[in-house]
Amino acid sequence: MAHVTLVASRLLCFSVFSVLLTGCQIPYLLKNSWHQTAILNSRVKIKEVLSSEKHSPETKEKLKLIQRVKAFAELQLKLKPTKNYDTFVELDRPYVTWIVRAAPQYQLSPYEWWFPVVGSVPYKGYFNKSGAKSEASQLSQKGFDTYVRGVTAYSTLGWFDDPVLSTMLQYEPHQLVNLIIHEMVHASVFIEGHVDFNERLATFMGNIGTEIYYSQRTDGGDIIENIKNENADSRLFSRFITKQLQSLRQWYSEKKDMISQTQKTQRLIQIQEDFSQNVLPQLTEKNYQWFLDANLNNAFLLSLETYQSDLADFARLYEHLDQDFHRFMSFCKDLEDDPNPQMTVRTLAAEEN
After folding, report:
1. Which of 16, 78, 225, 259 has its CA at a distance of 20 to 30 angstroms from the CA of residue 211?
2. Gap between the Cα atoms of 127 and 28, Å rounded
3. Which residues neighbour 224 within 8 Å (Cβ) at sequence distance 6 or greater?
């Protein structure tokens, strides 16, 4: 995505853990391992960056903000203390990595890559754009919808001490706060085999944590209303995209082999028209304007589903748990052995409302 919004930051910051460990293709594994090692070897202590004249005042202010947010999240939100974000890496590119997603042309079902140890995952990551584009091109030639996006940050889930990357500093301060809390939620709760649940949880709690952070600051008055509006917009968009994806999935199932590419294109245009007519007028901020111009296909929509659908389940459960951040996270952590954590959250939330 060429533009940077709060939504984009969420869409650009999920874990590429799988590509750091294993792969079916030895050259792919070795190349990605080399890039990850290069990043780790480039880490510089943030305290050294803050005392250096090499970096701009803006960079230093954002690094100080990250330090404050990390302390806040550990002490007040009770997220897992780690050695993450104590170091800094300057990259010479806009994204740290690029992610490929794919899906059948007439089915909302992710194409999955299989890796030893971590199993099947609905994405494949590259540390260079050309590799991701090449992978997407090969899948497109096989008839799949594809989507490539740049990623500004990722979590290694405790395998390494994650640095602050220069790619993360492109966001506005409150977006950066959201990003850090999002990634710290991953480090605190990550349920193996449930990528979508993990990302939705981090998306929802990143929103909540950012609102809590600024509501407690004496200088948060100018931005807190903006954050509340963005969070309200996120809930509206989530309801919209959840309903649209359910309807589209049913349409594919009912039509099966009778759908033409023209019919599919018209169906996707209808989704954008529905958004323009019924959702956009209700939004307070401009974070979802990009949806009007997005090149919708099944791979792109599945990416939205990963981050944006079913957030209402979390919202209802959060209300049930008295809007207690730590209590909510503890509940989710107890779902680590649950075969369907999203359904458990949905069922409990429905029972209590």
Report:
1. 16
2. 10
3. 211, 214, 215
Which DSSP helix (H) or strand (E) runs through 273? helix 261-274
* Rg of the chain (C-alpha set): 20
Structure tokens at 135: 């992978």
Can you tell me which residue has the tokens 């794919």? 102
Contact between 207 and 77 under an 8 Å Cβ cutoff? The reply is: no
Cα–Cα distance between 123 and 130 in angstroms, integer? 16
Domain boundaries, the chain: 6-351
Cα–Cα dist 238/311, whole Å: 6
**End-to-end CA distance of the chain, in Å?**
38
Listed as own residue / partner, the contacts of 115-118 with beta carbons closer than 8 Å and 24 or more positions apart are 115/18, 115/19, 115/21, 115/22, 115/23, 115/24, 116/22, 116/24, 117/21, 117/22, 118/17, 118/18, 118/21, 118/22
Closest CA to 97 of 40, 149, 21, 163: 149
Strand ranges (DSSP E) for the chain? 44-45, 87-89, 97-104, 113-115, 119-121, 124-126, 144-151, 164-165
Tens digit of each residue's pLDDT (9 = 90 or more) over 281-333:
999 999 999 999 999 999 999 999 999 999 999 999 999 999 999 999 999 99
Residue 203, Cβ density class (10 Å: 0-12 exposed, 13-18 middle, ≥19 buried): buried
Q: Residue 115: its pLDDT value, please? A: 66
Question: Where are the extended beta strands (E) located within 105-143?
Answer: 113-115, 119-121, 124-126
The encoded tokens of residue 72 equal 């806040």
Is the Cβ–Cβ distance between 162 and 84 less than 8 Å?
yes
Q: Mean pLDDT in the chain?
A: 89
Q: Annotate 295-329 with DSSP letters as a single string.
A: ---HHHHHHHHHHHTTHHHHHHHHHHTTT-HHHHH
